[in-house]
Amino acid sequence: MPGVPSVDGARQLARDARWGLSLTWSTRPDLVVGLAAITVALGLVPAGLALVIRALINAAVEQSGSGGGLASILPWMGLGLVLTATEAVGRLGRQYLTGRLTDDLDLAVTGRMLEHAARLDVATFESPESQDLLTRARSDTAGHLSRFVSDGLALATSAIQVVSLAAIVVVVEPWALPILLPVAAAHLAYQWRTSRRYYRTVRERTGKLRRARYFASLLTNRLTIPEVKLLQLAPVLIGRFRKLMEEFRDQNRHRFRRRFAGASASALVTTVLVYGLFLRVIQRVFLGALTVGDIAVFGAAVLRLRSAVDQAVSSSASAMEQVLFISSLREFLALEPRIRDHGTAVLPVAKGELEFQDVSFTYPGATTPALSHVSFRVQPGETVALVGRNGAGKTTLVKLIARFHDPDAGRVLVDGVDVRDVSLESLHRQLAFVFQAFGRYEVTAEENLAFGDWQRLLGDREAIAREARRTGVDGLVATLPEGYATPLGRQFGNHEPSGGQWQQIAIARAMARDAAVVVLDEPTSNLDAEQEYEVFRRSRDLARGRTALLISHRFSTVRVADRILVLDGGRLVEQGTHAELAGGQGLYSTLYGLYRRRMEESAA
Question: What's residue 465's pLDDT?
Fold first, then answer.
């Protein structure tokens, strides 16, 4: 039948549904049991009411002919009252329990996603495909799971109603099911096909959705708003956002139209058939084959049956749609880190010796190597600067030390041990980084500093203050409105540090770690010359006894290093002291000459 899922598709759908139900059960089994009980009760109420109505009418007809009282009617009235009250309270109870389950599922699913995201490595988040998957997984997945449960309960209720009401209808009119079921089956197949098509559409437009959100963020992000306004980019960005959103709107409009057309056709055909069957029942009453109560019970049952079938089809299609979205969550949770943490070695007292042995690396999807056959060794406690044009491979090199990526060839050693043989926890414990895009954590100043070694510092104001004095940011903290308790940034507070102040905090945070290796990736890009000098003077003191890797384009900075490594096109082309390289004929001498000419022109 058209629209029915393939066998493999149906199996996958069933696996995803079971997974969703298992997750729901493990979250709150007590609420699931309560909802199941209410579902069964609500499913049986319509059939019970139909039988009560039949009994009431037949009793009333019998009593009206015999002149009897209400004694034979009152028990049926009481039962009808109980069933009606059960239905009313049951619906409210289901709403109450569903609301509680939704909150618990939201907490459980979101927490599970965040925990899994924390397990994934940097390389995973750099992939556009992984970003699309993450976007789909974050797309109200808890809501989809909650709606799947609600739709499943509604489907179960409708299914029980369909079975119980069909049993009554068939007794009165055996032709009812053979006539009505094919229409319901065709409607179900149509709705399933519509749901699968919608999911494919949503999956295919994930990248476009990320792009639309990006354009919107440029117009609302405080860091991008100044330039957007100066360049008067709002019309361009709004235009691109509108184009994408109009495409989504048109796709949804077609979906709504198809669903409306299918549901309307099914409703019209079913209504015509129901009233045709109703006429046949009335005719049989006239012939004496059925009672007046049979007309009532058939009318009540068949109309509720039609409504229950429509609800079952709608709930089934909606539940299937939610399961298709839940599959994205399963897919995300099944995502494995590209960097496998199989290392068992521990570096309890690391010396900070680094060595690259013929290392080559190409980013996934790239055609040109970022590093090619790079070999060098850094002695413990040595300060080494990495110099080269943009794209030379400097940042890639330090990423390999941290195992954000693994080399395609060669080995990266820390204290003579291949980093792939060291547990990531032990490795990262011995590294302190200040990245170009360093963290601007919009929490208090003391928390920003404590994050450098949160297990030791977080919550200990006195220890944080000692680190601030040691790293030289205590004076900066003293200028803040609330000192260490000042919320930084304007998302949750009213104080926005300057770029240089944020950078000083980031450097202090890194230096708070008791790490053997310190990596400063363009650490002074937001600082003036005086601040830069002070940062590096203090950094050398703080890093004394530790290995330091410095990436910078400023020759006033790199010349303080014990040794300089010059990279070009992913290859190590020179190494030596500043004096040795500046007096040579290589790339460093050329770059340094350009730097000196710029300085002379600026002075003139």
Answer: 93
Name the helix (H) or strand (E) containing 409.
strand 409-414
| Start-to-end C-alpha separation, the chain | 84
Nearest to 471 by CA among 449, 445, 501: 449
Give pLDDT, residue 306.
Answer: 79
Q: Among candidates 206, 202, 207, which has minimal Cα distance to 324?
A: 202
**Domain of residue 253, residue span:** 10-333
Structure tokens at 338: 């590209």
Tokens 């619906």, residue located? 91
Going from the C-alpha of 146 to that of each of 89, 105, 116, 256, the distances in angstroms are: 21, 7, 20, 22
Which of 488, 514, 540 terminates a domain? The answer is 514
Domain annotation covers residue 47: yes
In a domain, 558, yes or no: yes
What is residue 340's DSSP assignment? -
**Spatial separation of the C-alpha atoms in residues 140 and 135, rounded to whole Å:** 10
pLDDT in tens, 564-603: 999 999 999 999 999 899 888 889 899 888 878 877 776 6
pLDDT at 1: 38
Which ranges constitute the DSSP H helices of 287-375? Answer: 292-333
Residues 368 and 289 in one domain: no
* Contact between residue 353 and residue 418 where contact means Cβ atoms under 8 Å apart: no
Predicted confidence (pLDDT) at residue 6 exceeds the cutoff of 60: no
3-state DSSP assignment of residue 375: strand
How many domains, in total, are found in the chain?
3
Q: Residue 249, Cα to own-chain centre: how many angstroms?
A: 23
Q: pLDDT-based confidence at 64, cuts 50/70/90?
A: low
Look at residues 307, 333, 359 and tell me which one is the last residue of a structural domain.
Answer: 333
Phi, psi of 379 (to 5 degrees): -75, 150
CATH number of the domain enclosing 464? 3.40.50.300
For residue 377, the model assigns a pLDDT of 95
Please indicate, yes or no, if residue 339 is contained in any of the structural domains. Answer: no
